[in-house]
Amino acid sequence: MKDKIDIDSELHFFDIEETEEYILYVKDGQEYTELFMLWHAIELIEEYIKLEKLSIKDTALRLIEYRIKDA
User: Fold this and answer.
1) Residue 3 lies inside a defined structural domain of this protein
2) Structurally, how many domains does the chain consist of?
3) pLDDT means over runs of 10, the chain (71 residues)
4) Which of 9, 23, 48, 49 is the least buried, fewest Cβ under 10 Å from its Cβ?
């Protein structure tokens, strides 16, 4: 996520080889925070939608909350 972890932040995807699995990553002077590894995000999203029947927005908010508390 660009700049901060927030529902309105821009998302960018980078190869793991490029970020070397760092949570904070800087590219061209811009700081990014890793929200989740893509495979992990997909698993969480599928579970939230299937088990809790959350909307897309509520699922996104839940992911952000999970990431902030897990950090």
Assistant:
1) no
2) 1
3) 77 87 89 84 83 82 84 54
4) 23
What would the two tokens of residue 54 be? 């959350």
- What residue numbers bound the domain in which 59 lies? 16-70
**65 within a domain of the structure (yes/no):** yes
| Cα 45 from chain centroid (whole Å) | 11
pTM for the whole structure: 0.62
60 lies in some domain? yes
Q: What residues contact residue 54 under an 8 Å CB cut-off, 6+ apart?
A: 48, 62
What's the rounded Cα separation, in Å, for the pair 12 and 69?
A: 21
Mean predicted lDDT score pLDDT of the chain: 83
